[in-house]
Amino acid sequence: MTPSANQRIDEESYTSWRQRSELAKMADLPPSLEQELVRLDREFWISSTKLKQIVQRFREELEEGLVKDGQSIPMNISWVHNLPSGREKGTILTLDLGGTNLRVCKVTLLGDHEGGKGKSTLEQEQYRLPQSLKTGSADNLWTFIAEKVAAFVQAKGLDRQYSLEKPMPLGFTFSYPATQHRIDHAILQTWTKGFDIHGVEGEDVAKHLREKLKERKLPVQLICVINDTVGAMIASAYNDPATIIGAIFGTGCNAAYLAHVSSIGKLDPDDERITAASTHNGTNKGKEMMAINCEYGAFDNAHRVLPRTPYDKRIDEESPRPGEQTFEKLSAGLYLGEIFRLVLVDLMDRGLVFQTQKEEGKEGLKNLYRPYTIDTSFLSQIEDDQSPSFSATRDLFAQTLALDPSDIDLEVARRIAEMIAVRGARLCACGIAAICGKEGIQSGNVAADGSVANKHPKFKRRWARALGEVFDWEGADGVKGPIRITSAEDGSGVGCAIIAAMELERREKVANKLP
Ligand code: BGC
Questions:
Q1: What is the chain's percent helix, strand, coil content, to nearest 5?
Q2: How many Å apart are CA 147 and CA 139, to the nearest integer?
Q3: In Å, how far are 60, 273, 275, 281, 287 from 510, measured between CA atoms?
Q4: Residues 261 and 288: beta-carbon distance below 8 Å
């Protein structure tokens, strides 16, 4: 790096956190805590110069993943060859195995019914995944899923409309990194988002699901396995043609985009699976496309560029898969609350916060020592608190942790919540900037879903601003920039159904030898 770039980073990091903070001040801090916040800010703040360095390395890793298997970012082939026309029709059952729930939906795609393209209706049931399931055995997982599908099929009377001879098409949104040789096949590469179910990694999840559904004689046929990012892109493109990327900023983080097959070095353009798809979707040779599920939560697993704090390192070391999902562990919803908790525990252990609580022997301190007791919504609520004297934040501490913080404790906690969320949003912009930069995409909509994107009050603005800084857009605020963040349509329900409908249409054309 040139000396001037180094100098710029230093200058930016010396800008005081107070100047950057958007939160109104609620209490004066003693010098020891002021200094502590300066230290934390130095660790968490990502300057414009640093953002650009990260994006540069990110682009290299995306390229590496396209060329060869087994790279840090896997750039998984999804076998989704094009965006939808908006005319797709059909009734599809979808399954969505998320980080917290299993969702089963009956989706009816209306195509361009009554002139309105991209319309659909949906009926759904949501089942909370028991914590024990996430670290249990494969058999428990597939049994749980098959049970819920059976209950849904029965409750909606689908067993009367469909049979084993004429089954209902089923789409499965499986939001973990998977190698796909076909659209109805998916070998789990590694669990992410804290899952650690034995006997699934290295296995074809489609095969296991199919077997369990068959055991129960359910009248369904698995047509596709998709990632939530691919679903978000497809569902959004169904009625917004400006969609360029589907992204999830939630429990985990990741994005998908439509790549030129010619840019995917690890794929043979003469592969029969590609030529067959282009024959029926009318794409000329050399112009074929393929949706890529980047799985960029794994960016920088070699720890070359991301500035990791001691808190991040600890989260990684104590996670079920140390050394994996480095980028995700710094930016995704599953971890933001835990980073916040670790910083507070550190300050408390060093006698800087919650001292009255300690003296009073508050029960709540035990809660603070329990890993993953604070989730990202805690941080969102802190930053959303407009109440006089921040009573909502006080209530939050009381209800979630049984703690009664002093004004100073609260002031420190608010600042830390902000630093962590700002870093997360700025990092999230890097992945998207890297895809757009690499692909030469200069405008369009990034269809985003996930709890952080949807529920954190300042995420989208911070994300847009960081994107503007990376691309040197005029004006500091990227909100009006040519690449915008939009709210994705329901990717894991409707998106999954559209992909199943596209695949069924393709199969029908192939079977009937239609162009
Ligand atoms: C998974 C991705 C997923 C993302 C968002 C990550 O942990 O590996 O497959 O798209 O979370 O849900």
A1: 50, 15, 35
A2: 12
A3: 38, 12, 12, 11, 20
A4: yes
Torsion of CA 486, 176, 53, 346, to 10 degrees: 100
Mutate to test the pocket of ligand 1, among 173, 190, 295 (most ligand atoms within 8 A of CB): 295
Whether the CB-CB separation of 169 and 105 falls below 8 Å is answered with no
- The answer to whether the Cα torsion of 29, 30, 36, 39 is positive or negative is positive
Please report how many Cα atoms fall inside a 13 Å half-sphere around the Cα of residue 296, on the Cβ side: 32
Whether the CB of 194 sits within 6 Å of ligand 1:
no
Beta strand 243-249 pairing with 444-449? parallel
Q: Which atom of ligand 1 is nearest to the CA of 174?
A: 9
Tokens representing 128 are 């909370």
Rounded to the nearest 5°, which phi and psi values hold at 245? -145, 145
Which residue puts its alpha carbon closest to atom 3 of ligand 1?
175
- Is ligand 1 within 6 A of the CB of residue 248? yes
Tokens of 459: 């995420």
Condensed to tens digits (0 to 9), the pLDDT of residues 496-506 reads 999 999 999 98
Q: How many angstroms is it from 185 CA to the middle of ligand 1?
A: 17
Is 227's C-beta closer than 6 angstroms to any atom of ligand 1?
A: yes
Contact 233, 420 (CB under 8 A): no
User: End-to-end distance of the chain based on CA atoms, in angstroms?
Assistant: 54
**Chain segment 214-246, per-residue pLDDT in tens:** 999 999 999 999 999 999 999 999 889 999 999
Q: Output b/e per residue, 78-101; b: 16+ Cβ within 10 A.
A: bbbbbbbbbebebbbbbbbbbbee
- How far, in Å, is the centroid of ligand 1 from the Cα of 83? 21
Burial tier of 27 (Cβ tally within 10 Å: 0-12, 13-18, 19+): middle
Task: Look at residue 185 and give its three-state secondary structure.
Answer: coil
Q: What percent of the chain has pLDDT over 70?
A: 95
3-state SS class at 167: coil
Amino acid letter for position 351:
G
Q: How far is residue 328's CA from residue 345's CA, in Å, rounded to a whole number?
A: 22
Give CA–CA dist 233/451, Å, rounded.
Answer: 17
Nearest-CA residue for atom 6 of ligand 1 = 252
DSSP-derived secondary structure for 38-73: HHHHHHH---HHHHHHHHHHHHHHHHHHHHSTT-SS
pLDDT value at 480 more than 90:
no
d(CA 44, CA 419): 6
